[in-house]
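Notes from hallway chat w/ T.B., transcribed later so I don't forget. T.B. wanted the structure written out for a chain they're using in a teaching module, and asked if we could keep both sequence and structure tokens in one place. Agreed to drop them here.
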Amino acid sequence: MAFAVRRATTYFVKRLHLRPVKQIKFTFDPYTKSVASVRDTASTLHTPEILETNQGTVMKFDVRSDKTEPRIDIEFNDGHKLVFETSNLSHLEILDYIYEFVDEKDPKKNEAPEIVTKSSKVGQKKGGGKR
């Protein structure tokens, strides 16, 4: 089972990006039972591979000792907010939901691919021709 979780986490790390995300706030009480999923998600999202996708994303950690239910607040660049009450969600479920929302709001998703034609390739050659 642990191998499957690691493999699924690796899958999300390779595909997840934070391009449309402005801020992520993790709020939890470390002494409650249902805090493992939010801690695991925070450590996964804090990996260099994911952080490099948007270096402007602010990650805040609000650690409390007042029996606060764990939650993740995500604020997007367009002003939308997403709130996860994570007490009954697993680590992989949270990553899956985050991936779905982030991929939907990806600004690069709607860009058209660059079309390369023969005439544009000829202009790019340096010193082409016979010698």
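Follow-up for T.B.: The radius of gyration is 20 Å. Might be a good example for the class.
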